UniProtKB/TrEMBL annotation, chains A, B:
It comes from the Bacteria. Keywords: DNA-binding. Residues 6-66 form the HTH tetR-type domain. This is TetR/AcrR family transcriptional regulator. PROSITE patterns: HTH_TETR_1 (PS01081), HTH_TETR_2 (PS50977). It comes from Streptomyces pseudovenezuelae. SUPFAM superfamilies: Homeodomain-like (SSF46689). Residues 29-48 bind DNA. It holds the Pfam family TetR_C_14. The keyword DNA-binding applies.
DNA sequence: CACAAAGCTGCACCCAGTGCCATATCGATG
DNA sequence: CATCGATATGGCACTGGGTGCAGCTTTGTG
């Protein structure tokens, strides 16, 4: 099986986090880690391409899982909804190990190098969203633009909720927070993507403004909404 | 003056790019660069904290400029519009040196380390947007969430347009492309932020619908629009 | 038991980045 | 003009992440 092998890998992660937490990330050398884990230095780099990778041991797996999840989508489903579903998948990875996630959050928050690394990881998730959306929105006006913007918005919503949960030391309800944040994005782009292959082009524009709104405001709103096509 | 001093800095950038373009980034050592520039190795790190920084020589300045620009905003202006204005500022930095920007784009496209670095740079722009928007949307429902999501959307729109311009080798019209992309974002979040302090609550409802539009579509649109508040 | 494949280790090496100190350059001042 | 001090530069040695290689051990298999 795939879960019984990596005893050494887990030992390295454990040793690394123990040292990171008691001395700090930059004050810990790879030699320190392998000494504590009782393995050779070379073996560390067999399991982790770089020192930073040991902080995000499961992201690679999660990323491939998520990509596969998107690839296996029903071609008729709502693309935005599907991406939101993928986000919930990612969130689950964090909530499965709350204490670990919180510890990692504290580390990444104060070590610039780790923050940069995390950024590149998050970016890969966002790219996965965008690639999927590009495929679904292909042919539509501004398809790739929409795909990129929506992917970024979804990722930002996820991060916002996740970070607030992490700041609460894993006490709040992460699922609910993410649900709320995704709701906001879905409201903003509400099926602004592909209205499913079966729905023909439509021309419904709804503007809700408030009594007493300055006229220029209403006009602007109409213009900008129309421009969406 | 501030523009007459950094002869050495410019020489280092020139030497670095010459070597990067003819040998590749990773095949070029810092020693190679300083040898070509005819300066001491230590001086390189005096001007650039890391080898990667030499690829983005002006981002630090641009970032502080942009932050100052946002900080100097009229408190009554439309926040989203202001952020879009800031984006145009960033774009200008790219379009001022098209050939340089295109060369850099080719480098970052194929060197993972540089891509990661660029990511962290872009992230700082996005954070500047988000911080500004957080200040402007403070107190509103989901203020920070909106700020983060809108900032991400704006940055994504900018990047989408910028990258398409860079792929065209700087031939297309970058301004127009970014304008179009920003238009999409403004349509999606059309002043969903603060309706300016002077605008009191309004209650105007305008519905533009094409004859024969499916009713569920209208309802969905109404829901999503109402939720924007 | 023999043998091969895979995993682990140590070693030597490259290169980015840093701290420290010596030197040079230049402007102000007596 | 000489001197002094601030600032810019250069050289040097050192740390530490990351890699290629070659040898050793373990494990599974006939």
């Amino acid at each position: 099986m795939s879960s019984t092998k990596p005893a050494m890998r887990d030992a390295l992660v454990a040793a690394a986090f123990q040292l990171f937490l008691e001395r700090g990330y930059e004050q810990t050398t790879v030699d320190d880690i392998v000494a504590l884990a009782g393995v050779g230095r070379r073996s560390f780099f067999r399991y982790f391409p770089s020192k930073e990778d040991v902080v995000f041991p499961d992201h690679e797996r999660c990323l491939t899982d998520m990509t596969a999840f998107l690839a296996a989508s029903d071609p008729g489903c709502d693309p935005l909804e599907r991406v939101c579903e993928a986000v919930r998948l990612v969130l689950r990875m964090y909530t499965e190990n709350p204490t670990f996630s919180v510890q990692r959050y504290r580390l990444t928050k104060q070590v610039p190098g780790l923050r940069a690394y995390e950024l590149s990881v998050v970016w890969r998730y966002e790219r996965a969203f965008a690639e999927y959306l590009r495929g679904r929105l292909k042919g539509l006006h501004d398809g790739t633009l929409r795909a990129d913007v929506i992917a970024a918005a979804v990722a930002a919503a996820h991060n916002n909720a996740l970070r607030s949960w992490l700041r609460s030391d894993g006490h709040g309800d992460a699922e609910q927070a993410v649900e709320h944040a995704l709701g906001y994005v879905q409201a903003a782009f509400g099926s602004a993507g592909a209205p499913a292959a079966d729905a023909p082009p439509e021309d419904v524009v709804v503007i809700v403004s408030r009594r007493g709104a300055p006229l220029w405001r209403v006009v602007q709103e109409i213009e900008s909404t129309l421009e969406r096509d």
